[in-house]
Design goal:
Order of helices and strands: HHHH
Number of strands: 0
Length: 71
């Protein structure tokens, strides 16, 4: 399921795997695949708050990483 997320090529997935924790990556892939963070949490057997936190951390890391590339 995680690897079938729409809109991200294999190259980008590999880069994300090195940037994010396993949980952040998994929640992000499920979210990009169309799930809400609540749905992702249920699928992973974690709390909605944990999934939301992982998603927010992932977004922040991605933003910081790509902002650093602009400098």
């Amino acid at each position: 399921d995680v690897e079938r997320s729409r809109g991200l090529g294999d190259v980008y997935k590999d880069r994300l795997k090195t940037l994010l924790s396993e949980r952040e990556y998994t929640v992000l892939m499920l979210y990009c695949g169309g799930m809400s963070y609540v749905e992702a949490a249920k699928k992973l057997g974690i709390s909605a708050k944990s999934a939301d936190n992982a998603l927010q951390r992932a977004k922040k890391k991605i933003s910081l990483h790509y902002m650093s590339l602009k400098d």
